[in-house]
Design brief:
Largest sheet: 7 strands, mixed
CATH superfamily: Spore Coat Polysaccharide Biosynthesis Protein SpsA, Chain A
Number of domains: 1
Order of helices and strands: EEEHEHEHEHHEEHHHEHH
Distance between the termini: 44 Å
CATH topology: Spore Coat Polysaccharide Biosynthesis Protein SpsA, Chain A
CATH class: Alpha Beta
Number of strands: 9
Shape: globular
CATH architecture: Alpha-Beta Complex
Radius of gyration: 16 Å
Strand content: 15-25%
Strand order of the largest sheet: 5-4-1-6-8-7-9
């Protein structure tokens, strides 16, 4: 089973509780999960949160949406991803972050569709300018994730799951997928990381329908700059 694994936790240092912050009447994480459903290449959506009591509310919120929840180590995020993938017997994995509420299934499919023909370990959308900040997708096989788990030992790289691969290009190959024209926006940020980001996200959300494409979201975000 191919799966989108969303990493989410309540304990953000810059904006605690942001994953369940209200985004025009719906918790941010729930809105993201709904937007990711329907991807063809990675149809299953899984939320990987921590086993800390404070993240019980995260598990409850997504379980109410009928979404599979995996809970694991709060600090070893790479280990949590590996265990989540193993629990589903996933072959192909798309990694996204809960602070990216405007990602959609079409964007995940665009990156995932490039994987089979790429002949690389990781296909991604965020390591070169082009896409807005807050639209990062990484696609890799479970075998790549397991290899990272064996070789990436420092807490610093395990916290960021794939960082070791980018720091060791001699061992891991990657490919960047450019955005379609309507999704270009290297000058824009759609991430929710600090309080001002949440204010902006709410303004954008009020300008689009809940299932609006990423291109429509980007167009709405640009109206805020006029």
């Amino acid at each position: 089973m191919n799966a989108i694994i969303v990493q989410a936790r309540m304990g953000s240092s810059r904006l605690p509780g942001k994953v369940l912050a209200d985004l025009d009447g719906t918790p941010l994480l729930v809105r993201l999960v709904r937007r990711l459903r329907g991807a063809r290449f990675v149809p299953e959506v899984v939320v990987a949160t921590t086993d800390l009591p404070q993240d019980d509310v995260v598990a409850d919120a997504v379980a109410a949406e009928g979404v599979h929840v995996f809970r694991g180590d709060p600090h070893d995020v790479l280990g949590r991803f590996c265990a989540a993938a193993e629990s589903l017997d996933s072959r192909l994995i798309a990694r996204v972050s809960a602070d990216s509420p405007f990602l959609d299934s079409a964007t995940v499919d665009l990156v995932a569709s490039a994987y089979d023909d790429a002949g690389v370990d990781i296909v991604q959308s965020h390591r070169e300018p082009g896409w807005p900040v807050g639209t990062a997708v990484e696609v890799f096989e479970r075998a790549c994730l397991d290899r990272l788990d064996r070789t990436a030992r420092e807490p610093r790289v395990r916290e960021h799951v794939t960082l070791y691969a980018y720091e060791h290009p001699e061992a891991f190959t990657t490919l960047w997928v450019p955005p379609p024209e309507d999704c270009r926006g290297e000058d824009l940020s759609l991430v929710v990381d600090v309080p001002d980001d949440l204010v902006r996200a709410r303004l954008v959300q009020r300008r689009v329908a809940g299932d609006a494409s990423l291109g429509s979201v980007i167009a709405a975000a640009r109206t805020l700059e006029l």
